[in-house]
Amino acid sequence: MAGITDWRRLHGDAFEGRNVLVTGGAGFIGSHLAIALRSLGANVTVLDDLSGGGDPKALPDGVKFVRGSILDQSLLRDCTESRELVFHQAALGSVPRSIEEPEKYQQVNSNGTLNVLEAARHCKVRRVMFAASSSAYGDSEQLPKIETMPTSPRSPYAATKVAGEAMMSAYSAGLGVDTVSLRYFNIFGPRQSAESAYAAVIAAFAKAMLAGRSPTIFGDGQQSRDFTYVDNAVHANLLAAKYSGELAGIVVNIACGVRISVNELAAKMAKSLKRDDLRPIHKPARIGDVKHSLADLQRVRSILKYEPIVDFDKGLGATMQWYRESLHS
Description:
Blueprint: H1 7-11, E1 19-23, H2 28-39, E2 43-48, E3 64-67, H3 73-80, E4 85-88, H4 95-100, H5 102-122, E5 127-133, H6 156-174, E6 178-184, E7 187-188, H7 201-210, E8 216-218, E9 224-225, E10 228-229, H8 230-242, E11 250-254, E12 260-261, H9 262-272, E13 281-283, H10 298-304, H11 312-327
C-alpha cells in the first residue's frame, strides 16, 4: 500500500545526502520514519533486533539494515559512527507487559537509551530525536496535557520513558549532544502489530473484527485517547531533525489535539467494515491504564511549527485498508 503523505512537498531537499541512524527502524514507527527519510534522499542505517516483530522487508532499497540490539554497545557505536542525526525509536512497548517484566523494560528502555546517548556523544552526532510517551503524564485529570505538568508515570514502561527524557535533557545540558523528546500520543497506522496479546487498541480491534469477532474493551469504553496517525509522528521527527537552532532537550507533545473515546473508536471501525453487529465485549480495566489523554500542541507549534498533517478519520481509513489487505488476505 502506497503512503498517503508527499514527504518531498513538506520537506524538500532538507535531508538529501545526510547520514542518519534509526534505532528500532524495522518496527512500526521506525519503519515509517526510515521510509520517509530514504524518500527524501538520506543515507539511512537501521538498527533493530526484531524483538518487537519488525519486518526489514518493509524497508526500501538503499536502507542499510543491521540486525542487533541497542544493548550491544560496540555494534551501536559502529552504527552511529559518521551519523549526523539519530532517531531513537527502539524500545519495548506496552504498559501491561511492563508490569509483568519491569526489569527487562529498565534494561532495554533506560539502559539502552543511555547507550544511544553515549554512542552519539562519542561519535559527535548533531542531534538525537527521542521517542517519548504521553504515558509520562499518568492519570492526572487535567486536560489537555501540557508539557509543563509534573510527570507521574503509572507503569514501568512510563517510568522508563520519563527516565529517557531526563537523560536527553542531561546530555543536552552538559555532554554536547543536542536532543529533543517527542511525546507520542497513541500512534497508529499500517504495520502496527496485531499479533501480540499486548497489541495497541486499533490493531487489536482490527484483528478481532476482520476475523468476525467482537472487540474487547478493558473498562467502560468511556476512556479517551488522542489517536495520532503515524505520519504525524514522522513529520514531527523530521521537523525536529532539521530545526536550525538548539533544542536543548526540550519535551514536546506529538498528537492531533482531538479526543476520541474507545467506544467511539469501536463503532467507527465496525462501520468501516460494515459490521455494526460486532458490539464490544467489556472486561475489567487494566492496571496502569489512564482514563483520558489529550495533547496541548501550543509548544510544538511555536517551536517546531508542527501541525497534524493527517487527521484521525483519514488515518483510520488508510489503516483499516492496510489491515484488510494484510490480515484478511
